[in-house]
Specification:
366 residues; alpha+beta; 12 helices; disordered N terminus
Length: 366
């Protein structure tokens, strides 16, 4: 697979500079909320070579762009380190890792009866946008198309050098997204685009009668015992679907652990088992590679593939925000990084994180 295609379909960036001018900010955290405290162990106690793990942290610090590296094995936090002045309780923008959170919320809305099925039509929830002259194919776009990035919208909007600011500077992000041209028939082809996850956030609000934030608090964040420190909104008050969620690295590690445990932690089935399994199934298959990642595919807003000889699923955010889960190894790797960079630099940073995982962390497994 060519580098150009990888950029276009797999690594399309979210805007870095200027977006905060167009997003509503609000401190959405419950400040008195006590977050889950990880049980701490050591690499050796969890069958990881401590010297090799130390080499991984040396490599991470030397990158100059990584803010954190955390390693969880067998449900224990075995190693963590923070760089560039960041500390354990600093919440960070996890960029498109947010998309995997949106995926979980759709599953929860289905489970609790707010949604009927992924076959429901997008425009049934947004009837005011069914204007005359709208491409009739848009009436066929379903929730399933949106959650697999197969709605067919023109994803050149993701090229922030040219088109992104036209979307985020608009006063109606939902209307702008729906008016985007369709490049493909719905369901026929994968095309990564943040607008589709933002539409899902708006649909969740319509379907549940709650803001996406309130719904997430009730059914995900509080049961999971994680705190979101900030979640930004669009100009009309919709919580942004697919970016601009701020968590501590420990919190997103907990989210990765939830999926590693197939939705059940502490004896509580927070997300239905079947939803987790469907989410981590290839709905878009690929034989291409990118850095150390092979057999790249896409589930329900989760990336799928292999690193080394090990299957993994990944929540991926621009420039090096990662939750990488290796189910057979009971291993989770979390990183956060500087995202104030152009797309070429972001690509290099993402590849560097995958390289540290492949060449230092996986070899530490005994």
């Amino acid at each position: 697979m060519s580098l150009k295609k990888l950029f276009k379909f797999f690594l399309l960036p979210v805007v870095i500079a200027g977006i905060q001018l167009y997003c509503q900010k609000d401190p959405t955290a419950i400040r008195s909320f006590e977050s889950y405290e990880w049980e701490v162990s050591t690499p050796a106690a969890q069958n990881l070579d401590e010297n090799v793990i130390e080499d991984a942290f040396v490599q991470a610090e030397q990158t100059g762009f990584m803010n954190s590296l955390l390693i969880v094995r067998h449900g224990y936090l075995v190693s963590e380190r923070y760089f560039r002045g960041f500390e354990v309780n600093d919440a960070q923008d996890v960029m498109s890792v947010s998309k995997s959170f949106i995926s979980s919320l759709v599953g929860l809305a289905l489970h609790h009866g707010y949604l009927d099925s992924l076959g429901q039509k997008m425009l049934d929830f947004l009837p005011e946008y069914q204007a005359s002259g709208l491409d009739p194919r848009k009436s066929q776009i379903t929730l399933g198309h949106l959650i697999t990035m197969r709605a067919g919208f023109d994803n050149s909007i993701e090229d922030y050098d040219v088109n992104w600011n036209r979307w985020v500077s608009s006063t109606d992000w939902i209307g702008y997204a729906i008016q985007l041209p369709l490049l493909y028939d719905p369901g026929s082809r994968f095309a990564y685009i943040t607008a589709e996850t933002h539409l899902l956030s708006a649909i969740l609000t319509r379907a549940t009668g709650m803001s996406t934030f309130d719904f997430a608090q009730k059914y995900l964040f509080v049961p999971l015992k994680i705190r979101i420190d900030r979640w930004e909104r669009d100009p009309r008050g919709n919580y942004i679907g697919g970016m601009r969620m701020h968590f501590t690295p420990r919190s997103i590690a907990r989210f990765g652990y939830l999926y590693l445990r197939e939705g059940n932690v502490g004896g509580d089935q927070i997300i239905p088992l079947q939803w987790v399994r469907e989410s981590l199934t290839y709905h878009t298959s690929g034989k291409g590679g990118w850095g150390e990642l092979r057999n790249i595919g896409y589930g329900y807003l989760w990336w799928l593939g292999e690193i080394g000889e090990h299957e993994c699923f990944i929540a991926l955010g621009y420039a090096g925000q990662f939750i990488i889960v290796f189910p057979e190894l009971q291993l989770i790797v979390v990183t956060t990084s500087d995202y104030q960079c152009d797309k070429d630099t972001a690509d290099r940073q993402e590849r560097a994180v995958l390289s540290i995982c492949a060449n230092y962390i996986l070899p530490a497994v005994e």
